[in-house]
Design brief:
The protein is mainly alpha-helical. It folds into three domains: 35 residues, no CATH class; 99 residues, Cytochrome c-like domain (Cytochrome Bc1 Complex, Chain D, domain 2, Orthogonal Bundle); 77 residues, Cytochrome c-like domain (Cytochrome Bc1 Complex, Chain D, domain 2), CATH 1.10.760. It contains nine helices and two strands. Strand 1 and strand 2 form a beta hairpin. It is globular and about 55 Å long. The structure holds heme C (2 copies). One heme C binds next to helix 5.
Length: 285
């Protein structure tokens, strides 16, 4: 875990105005930890029914399988990847998420409302089946997202949104296997199936091949910034890439509709499966 004192000082700083101009300086820390690149916002639930709905939404996002047993097909929860209740920068935070929708989704070549994006993660990252867009659980998750989006103007980007992705490269999977055993297996098990200390990273109970995390650059960026969970930021770029290459080479559930992805022929360069539309010349990032 990162240094709690520093994190609390930074949260206090953020709560006092954000830009630091007239905010008090954080108290000096005897053993300074490297400051997080971006300040994690404090969650403030409003009083009343919207706040209650948002609290239910957070409970669903943290206990996803128990909350939605008919829709979740693996042993992950939403916050297995969207860390710190979806507030951690560089771990696909939901901070300001309401302000980023409606959003054009290149994978579907369609303008998505936020509920459709949630279903994308339910079907792929959670290897499950989509929720009706007006399901009460959907309403509660969106209420939580709204709480995390207060004060962010429509269309504004938030620092640390998404996950920083390295340039396309080839990772060394055999060195990645060594990194896995030395740095990851103590929590996620040598065979990736997970333990009480960390969720499954591959195999039947993990995300499927259609998930963003199944792509090399997304996995490398997430791992580089967030893993090992108790020592984030300690892996070199090369070790993060190699262990990501090993992880994405492991077996995981299929996604039956994957060939229909990126119908305009613009898949990212690290998509690990062929699509019916293929790749138009010069397309893809
Ligand atoms: C296996 C990891 C993983 C799990 C589990 C997961 N997600 Fe995601 N999620 C991702 C990735 C990766 C992205 C895309 C980030 C990118 O490429 O910028 C994403 C994106 C999103 C976005 C859009 C974020 C944005 O900034 O536009 C939403 C909303 C979202 N997820 C909601 C959920 C919900 C709700 C759940 C649980 C039902 C969930 N996710 C579970 C990995 C995951
Ligand atoms: C100290 C235990 C620990 C170590 C070591 C660790 N992780 Fe994790 N990892 C976690 C936990 C816990 C989560 C989920 C966080 C949550 O549920 O709040 C996670 C989440 C993940 C995820 C997203 C969710 C999933 O299950 O796929 C990936 C990918 C991942 N870790 C990869 C790695 C890699 C690669 C390493 C080694 C470089 C590593 N982890 C080392 C504990 C650990």
């Amino acid at each position: 875990m990162r240094n709690i004192t520093t994190a609390i000082a930074l949260i206090a700083l953020a709560a006092c105005g954000g830009d630091g101009t007239d905010a008090p300086q954080p108290v000096a820390d005897a053993t300074p930890a490297p400051a997080p690149e971006v300040v994690t916002p404090k969650i403030v639930f409003p009083d009343g029914p919207v706040g209650e709905s948002a609290r239910r939404g957070l409970a669903i996002l943290e206990a996803t399988r128990d909350s939605l047993p008919n829709h979740i097909g693996n042993d992950l929860r939403c916050t297995s990847c969207h860390l710190d209740q979806g507030t951690r920068p560089n771990a696909m935070p939901w901070t300001g998420i309401q302000a980023r929708f409606p959003q054009y989704n290149t994978r579907a070549a369609a303008v998505f409302r936020i509920e459709e994006r949630i279903n994308g993660c339910i079907e792929r990252s959670m290897n499950g089946t989509a929720l009706p867009l007006d399901d009460p659980a959907m309403r509660d998750m969106v209420a939580y997202f709204a709480v995390l989006s207060r004060g962010v103007a429509i269309g504004d980007a938030v620092p640390g949104q998404g996950v920083p992705k390295p340039a396309m490269a080839v990772g060394d999977t055999s060195h990645g296997a060594t990194v896995w055993l030395e740095q990851c297996a103590r929590c996620h098990a040598p065979d990736g199936s997970g333990s009480e200390l960390g969720p499954p990273v591959w195999g039947d109970r993990s995300y499927n091949i259609g998930a963003g995390m199944a792509r090399l650059r997304t996995a490398a960026g997430f791992i580089k910034h967030n893993m090992p969970f108790d020592m984030p930021g300690t892996l070199s770029d090369a070790d993060a890439l190699d262990v990501a290459a090993y992880v994405v080479s492991r077996p995981r559930p299929d996604f039956s509709r994957k060939a229909a992805d990126w119908p305009k022929g613009d898949p990212p360069l690290d998509v690990a499966y062929p699509t019916t539309a293929g790749r138009r010349e010069g397309e893809g990032r």
